[in-house]
Amino acid sequence: MTPANADFQYAVDLLRNGQLVAIPTETVYGLAADAANPEAVARIFAAKGRPADHPLIVHLAAANAVDHWAENIPDFAWELMETFWPGPLTLILKKQPWVPEAVTGGQNTVGLRVPGHPVALELLRRFATATGPRAGLAAPSANRFGHISPTTAAHVAEELGNSVPFILDGGPSAVGIESTIIDCSRENPVILRPGHIAPEHLATVLDSQPEIATSNSAPRVSGSLEAHYAPRTPLRLIAENELPAFLETRQGHRCGILSHTPPPPETPHRWRQLPANPDGYAHCLYAALRDMDQAAIDLIIVEAPPASAAWAAINDRLRRAAAGSGR
Ligand code: TXA
Ligand code: MG
User: Fold this and answer.
1) Does domain 5-202 sit in CATH 3.90.870.10?
2) Domain boundaries, the chain
3) What is the mean pLDDT of the chain?
4) What's the CA gap between 17 and 31, in Å, rounded?
5) Which of 71, 181, 285 is the best mutation target for the ligand 1 pocket, counting ligand atoms within 8 Å of the beta carbon and taking the most?
6) CB neighbours of residue 151 within 10 Å
7) 8-state DSSP, 85
């Protein structure tokens, strides 16, 4: 799905005037503002209801804008960019002194990414043509703080309604969960948020598989809060072999079940079977959670996916969704 020329033009005009535009990316939809304009960035926090000390990712049209935003960039970080950009990988780097505090949450680092979505890239290129080659768009996921990230333009409208003047529709996000975040500002790279690009992919460029940070060692990352990505309906993760017995205890309740194995032939519950592979599952996950959240059910039950490394990013999101649900 490609927006019309006039839509891109309107989006660039809004951004140049310090206004917000929701944009499609291959991971999830983002809520974008001119990253060099602190007043514009402040509008993001207001629209999301997000605490002001949470840093934002700056989206760039190409890697040649990176040294405008970051300094002391290690060689391995350039190699990561070369290999994985445009794509679902965010690099945390030492920031240039001028980068607004509103973007970095007062930290001395900045998160940068070149997204792998043709509509996002086209917008970034046009924005750079209008403002200068080093232009960047600060964009967190386009949801209310703590809630499920949007993977379609319709989800953004549900989340933010009138607080976003324009939504650029680029169709459903292919990946479906947020980018992998790797901190390249320390001596050894550390994964702050697991995502579609897994440690073993990163190891093809780095000397070894980077560690996944524990919440104590991580700097402030709202995606690393224990409660995040959450539906309003309570959500519980139940092991595959415990699911039948658990459902016995829920008779008389209407539950929504997300499984990756086939449902029984008959069930009183709202049952949705997701693909049994991590990429397919990630692509459908947030839309399925949203759908369950809108159905009149008492409890969302997620059949726990395998505990293997391939499912790490999905298990991360599900654990935080369970912790933040029912509020
Ligand atoms: O896939 C994505 O990354 C999407 C799309 C729109 O690009 N964006 C996204 O943004 O997920 P957001 O704000 O919802 O999550 C970005 C995460 C936050 O948890 C934030 O704290 C972290 O990136 N982050 C940004 N800058 C950082 C920094 N300098 N140091 C540590 N964490 C940072
Ligand atoms: Mg988010």
Assistant:
1) yes
2) 5-202, 235-324
3) 94
4) 15
5) 181
6) 29
7) -
CA distance 260 to 230: 19
Q: What is the pLDDT of residue 225?
A: 66
The CATH architecture that domain 235-324 belongs to is 3-Layer(aba) Sandwich (3.40)
Atom of ligand 1 at shortest distance to CA of 181? 23
Q: Is 84 exposed, middle or buried, given 0-12, 13-18 or 19+ CB atoms closer than 10 A?
A: buried
Smallest Cα–Cα separation from 276: which of 245, 240, 252?
A: 240
- pLDDT, residue 222, reads 57
Pocket probe mutation, ligand 1, options 45, 57, 185, max atoms within 8 Å of Cβ: 57
Q: Are strands 255-259 and 299-303 parallel, antiparallel or unpaired?
A: parallel
DSSP 226: S
The residue whose two tokens read 């560690």 is 211
Those residues whose beta carbon sits under 5 angstroms from the ion ligand 2 are 141
Q: How far is the CA of 297 from the centre of ligand 1 (A)?
A: 31
- Per-residue pLDDT tens digits for 203-236: 999 988 998 887 655 555 555 567 777 899 999 9
Tell me if 28 CB under 6 Å of ligand 1. yes
